[in-house]
Amino acid sequence: MFAAKALPGLPAYGPPAYSFPDPDAFREGFVVEFKLDHGGSWIGNFANGLAGGRSAIHSDLGARAILVVASGAGYIVDATERRVRELPIEIQHMWFVTELQALVVTNGLWIEAFNADELIWRSRRFSWDGVRHVARSNMAVTGEAFDPLSGDWIPFRVDLTSGEVKGGSYSGPSM
């Protein structure tokens, strides 16, 4: 069984860490150790997101699709091949949805669901500028989306089986 765990910083000794997304990075980011089934291990140094946010590791999809979130920046890691795909979304909330065998993430403007291989769906944009009171209940994500025109918080609901959105503060063109 493989394992992925956060480290407090770059190790002082041993092989150098692999830096993502820039292989020549000199700044310490979110440091993760990957231990593989065959006994090998390696260290990844992931650049932090620009907006801040939390850091986390989700290994629910297996060793070939570990979600690493570094202060909001998202990366899908194939720990076996030491390959990384950077996600084009700053992550604020995330859930593993067993029924879909997928990870669901939001950046406060829309929601995406993906499995180990591909993006399953992307919701339409439902917020102008952020969300609050976001929660998952069964196969839906609910919350309130900010509307800067009125200053109000408008309820929204996203169906996790399809990505269909009801409500929200943004009803402009899709992305």
How would you explain this protein's 3D organization?
- It is a single chain.
- The protein has 175 residues and is an all-beta fold.
- It has two domains: 1-88, no CATH class; 92-175.
- Helix content is 0%, strand content 49%.
- It has no helices and 16 strands.
- The protein has strands at residues 3-6, 18-20, 30-35, 41-46, 56-58, 66-70, 73-78, 83-90, 93-97, 102-106, 111-114, 119-122, 131-137, 140-147, 152-159, 165-167.
- The strands form four sheets. A four-stranded mixed beta sheet has the order 1-3-4-2, with no helix packed on it. A four-stranded antiparallel beta sheet has the order 5-6-7-8, with no helix packed on it. It has a four-stranded antiparallel beta sheet with strand order 9-10-11-12, with no helix packed on it.
- The protein is elongated, with a radius of gyration of 17 Å.
Low-confidence stretches: none
For the termini, the CA-CA separation is 39 Å
**Helix content estimate:** under 10%
How does the overall form come out from the CA principal axes?
elongated
Given the helix and strand composition, which structural class is it? mainly beta
| DSSP helical segment count | 0
Draw up the topology in text.
Blueprint: E1 3-6, E2 18-20, E3 30-35, E4 41-46, E5 56-58, E6 66-70, E7 73-78, E8 83-90, E9 93-97, E10 102-106, E11 111-114, E12 119-122, E13 131-137, E14 140-147, E15 152-159, E16 165-167
Parallel strand pairs: 2-4
Antiparallel strand pairs: 1-3, 3-4, 5-6, 6-7, 7-8, 9-10, 10-11, 11-12, 13-14, 14-15, 15-16
